[in-house]
Amino acid sequence: WGLLLLAAALGGTAATRCPAPCVCDNLRAHVLCLNGSLVAIPDTIPELTKKLDLRGNSFTVIPAGAFLATPYLTHLDLQHCKVERLEEGAFRGLGRLVYLNLASNSIALLYQESLDGLSSLQQLILEGNRIEEIQPGAFGHLGSLTVLDLRANALVYLPDMVFQGLQVLRWLRLSHNALHVLGSEAFAALPALRRLSLDHNELQALPGEALARLDGATRLDLGHNPITYVAEEALAMASLRHLFLDHASLQDVAPDAFARSPQLRMLDLRENQLQGLPPLAGAGGLARVSLGGNPLLCSCLLRPFHNWLARARVQAEGACAAPPALRGRPLDSLKPPEMRCNRLRPPSSPPPPPQQPRAAGSRQCPRGCVCSPDFHHGSCENRDLREIPRHFPGDTRLLDLRRNTFSTVPPDAFPGLKELVSLHLQRCGIRALQPGALRGLESLVYLYLTDNRLSTLAAAAFEGAPQLAYLDLDHNAFTRVPAGAFQLLPNLISLHLQHNAIGELAEGDLAGAKGLRWLYLAGNAISHIAPAALAPTKMLEKLQLEGNHLVEVPTAALRGLPTLSELKLSRNPIKRMGDGVFLPVASSLQHLYLDNMGLEQISPGAFAGLGPKIRSLYLESNKMSNIPNMSNFTGLEILNLQDVPFHCDCQLLPLRRWINKLNLRVGATCGSPAEARGLKVKLSTTFQNCPGWGQGEAGEANPEKTKAASKSSKKKRSGKPPARGFSKSRT
């Protein structure tokens, strides 16, 4: 930062071209515009810039051609910029870019041309968005990509050929999604892949057919999935060396489960439900098996496995859970005579999951539409249709009917589409979804009804679509949540009702939504949430209420939400916060948004119960002059205090000391008194007259500050007055 400030101060003519509030290092061609109030990409960034850091701004949309003025960029960071949409061609012209970070935004969908123009890109970070679906072809222009990070999104399904074009990709990160359906050809176009991370998803069986396409992969992470059984020859990966199946729900593994993975060396089966294992004779190259945290029954039933370990010279980690005489004994310390049976019956193994026959599907296609047999797509987008067409191929999995004029969706509108997973009906002028409209869509996971004219929904409209997990009803005409409409959707995970005209959330509105994890209600007119309104959604993780009419934190409604990790209350007219308003979710909350509310007062106990679990806290653009003690917020990664008029007097000294210790840019600025207005809280000299000033002000991480404080202390001991302007000299 010293170099950057020096470049900004001494950069001459070039520095004057640096857009406010950015800092330009013209020598290294770096531009930083961090944690500012930018709402559009600056068009005055120097043309020769190579590295552009725009973290912490508010762009919402990245428009087409946004970076045409900076064609020499090699690194672009857009983390925490509240981006919701990438327009087609957003990055066109960035043919030299090798690193793009879009983490921690609100991107929901990747279209085919969203990433066009990035032919040299090597690393793409999309972690922590809310991507629910990726259209095949979205990565088709990224022929140089080696790392693709899609962690912590909302993916449920991966269609066939979704990663087509990624010929040199080496690491694909899909952890912390909700994946439970993988197309058999989902990974078919990844010849160079070496590592695949699928941990922390909802896979109930080993996706052997999809994984068999990865001949070159050497590491596979499948931990933290509810997989109960690994069947015979379930995994056929010729180069696999490291397999992680830890923290799953495994009860049994077939003897030949890994026979078609001959290079397997390390197998991690920790923290499962295994009472024992058969000899894994098919895994001839295995060197290590980790079994810690399993309820191993060290009886005669485990002898064959134990003998195999010795013969094959495989190292095993784990300890006996039973019988009592052997509890806690490491496996490698046992001797065969100690492993007795005492007439114990072997535990029954669950049968392997039945294989479902795949429908072949015919190749017909409605007139005026396009059907892709490779991607199993059907598209009639923007064809001025007045009725929903029929006779799509039976194996169609994605159907795009956007921008037509249907008015109503009649009963049995999609016959013969039992394999359909994703249905797009955005901007179709739909006023009614009639009972039975989705009947027969037994595999449907995604339903997009954005930008229509729906004002009501009946539960019968969803009859016959029990797998529906993502329902997008943004930008419709709802004045209230359609009560009881979700009774037939036991697998609903994500519900979008943003930008409607909903005035309240009443008890019973969400009845039946027992598995709901993400609820998006931003941009409505909600002024009241009944105490029991959220009671059915006990698994809720994200609640987004920004841009409504709430005048207080809905504390009572937050009770009974033990897994809530993200709460957005931004842009609600909440002026005061009383004590303990977040106590019901204090044990789980990680991300809290309280920005742009006109907040005037936060009581000292408002954040009671919150602490080390909080990772991000947004308080920018409010009106309070002080905030409560947050010294126990030790896990903070993001703290935004910009545009808050802090009164920089002695009462603020604890806050000044605390933020001085944080390794974060918080943006805290003095609003008063007059002599401090506009100064950073860290740099204000108004604190030097406060009792206790100088105790701890030496700056633990700043040797210059320590030296200055030491000199000041010596002058005090010699009877001389302390030097004034301490913060100025540091500046």
TrEMBL record:
- Listed SMART domains: LRR_BAC, LRR_TYP, LRRCT, LRRNT
Entry GO terms, CC: plasma membrane
Could you tell me which InterPro entries the record lists for this protein?
Cys-rich_flank_reg_C, Leu-rich_rpt, Leu-rich_rpt_typical-subtyp, LRR_dom_sf, LRR_TM_domain-containing, LRRNT
Please list which residues make up the signal peptide. Answer: 1-15
Q: Where is this region: Disordered?
A: 325-363, 692-731
**Swiss-Prot/TrEMBL keywords:** Disulfide bond, Extracellular matrix, Glycoprotein, Leucine-rich repeat, Repeat, Secreted, Signal
Q: Which Pfam families match?
A: LRR_8, LRRCT
Q: Where is the composition biased (Pro residues)?
A: 347-356
Q: Kindly list the places in or outside the cell where this protein is found, as annotated in its UniProt entry.
A: Secreted, Extracellular space, Extracellular matrix
| Domain (LRRCT) ranges | 294-342, 645-691
Could you give the subunit structure recorded for this chain? Answer: Associates with collagen and binds to collagen fibrils.
Membership in a protein family: Belongs to the small leucine-rich proteoglycan (SLRP) family. SLRP class IV subfamily.
The UniProt function text for this chain reads:
Potential negative modulator of chondrocyte differentiation. Inhibits collagen fibrillogenesis in vitro. May influence chondrocyte's differentiation by acting on its cellular collagenous microenvironment.
Protein name stated in the entry? Chondroadherin-like protein
| Species of provenance | Smithornis capensis
